[in-house]
Amino acid sequence: MNLKSLLHAWPYVASIVLTKGLAVITIPVLTRYMAAEDVGYLDVAASLLEFIGLVFAMGLADTLFRFSGTQRTEAERNREASIITGSALVLALFFGVLVQLFMPLVIGAWDLPINEWALRLSILGATLGGLIELPLAWLRLGNKPKLFLIFTASRGVLQALTMVVLLMNGYGIDAILIANGSIDVVLALSLLALQVSRTGIGFSRQGFERTVKFGLPLVGGALAMFALGSCDRWFLVTAISPETLAHYSIAVKLSLAAPLLLQPFGLWWYAKRIAVLEESNGLAHSADVVLLGYWVLVVGALGTALAAPIFIAWLLPASYLPAIAYVPWLVLCFSLNELCSLLNVGTYRAQHGFYVLGVNAAGGAAAVLGYWLLAPSHGVAGAIFATLVGHGLRLLLFLGLFHRKAPIPYRLPQMAVFTGLAVLAVAGQPLSVSLLWQFAYAIAAGLIMLAAGYGVMSRLKSRGALAPVEA
Hints:
Elements: H1 3-25, H2 27-33, H3 36-57, H4 60-67, H5 74-110, H6 116-127, H7 129-141, H8 145-168, H9 173-199, H10 205-227, H11 232-236, H12 242-255, H13 262-269, H14 273-277, H15 282-315, H16 327-343, H17 354-402, H18 412-427, H19 435-463
Helix pairs in contact: 1-8, 3-6, 3-7, 3-10, 3-12, 4-5, 4-7, 5-6, 5-7, 5-9, 6-9, 7-9, 8-9, 10-17, 12-16, 13-15, 15-16, 15-18, 15-19, 16-17, 18-19
């Protein structure tokens, strides 16, 4: 990754780090000022809002990139963007009314202790998700990363500060949902006004049909990944105690940090890996870079698996200590998900995206079936097992069915060494000793893993594999 790429990408990297960082920083406040059962119920509500946001996003960002980004003149790009914006408004209005009509059924089915109007306002904010993602995508398309960072940072900081202030003043779930929903509504209207001021707004039947046709498969793929990431709460909310649900929720929030270290690598590599395959030595070149990415993923997973228990024991109430037991398995779940992205290049060599959709849908269906069968009887353990099965199936399909389209000779011995070191380090973590010794152990294990990867990076650098194509 060269200096030019870093300078261009830093606002996007910063937005990811800031968003995820704020989510972690607010956990101690959440667990101190909110009852455990309310933490679990808030997580269930958040998963519902995530689902609605994915549906209402309707793949609008990718649709904009596809139809507006490919136009040659600014006038043509603006015209396409205005039509997509008009389509987004129609979709938000139609489906928004539909979702509001069905809200009482959801509250009754899950017996959520949440005020109906608080949930309705938060859902209104999620309904406008497409009207947030679309203008943000326009900023990316227009090469305005700093403005993109300002809006995403403002959203994250405002929601985090609002939550902290409300909790410290004795307010609960309802106030948090209302505040976050209000912030999303204001942000959506502000971004929409910015978008319309630059591109205008239009509508055509043909443009609407095209937007829906292009976006539906993307929504299907996103929902398949939602099934593997957040859908488990829907099955657990009626199967386990609210306290256990809260422990699981905290473990999930912390384990989400596992793949973050790989995301900047992905910004650099995923856009170039198809082109690298076309080089004369592209397969071997790709294998070297993938090995580097795998090492980065393992380092992030190991760091999360060792640091999260220290975080829980040090900063959270003692009642949350049971969450530690879930962390290694959840880190494995999120790492498998990221590993699928690292190794799925064969599917992207096709002329369409239906292979990716099919594999993700198969994994999501397997996970949901597992949640339905196992969560009622085995609780959290059943849900985690079902998630692992879903990601494992995806990995097998990506490699078993599509590896021939990109027959990269993956460096399996070196990958096995990294994996073995990480597993041994996590299995040997001394949780019964003082936090100081746990911290020292985590540092030592991290240094060993860094040393193991140093040789790999040195070899890749000598081959020139760290910069396969110019940005």
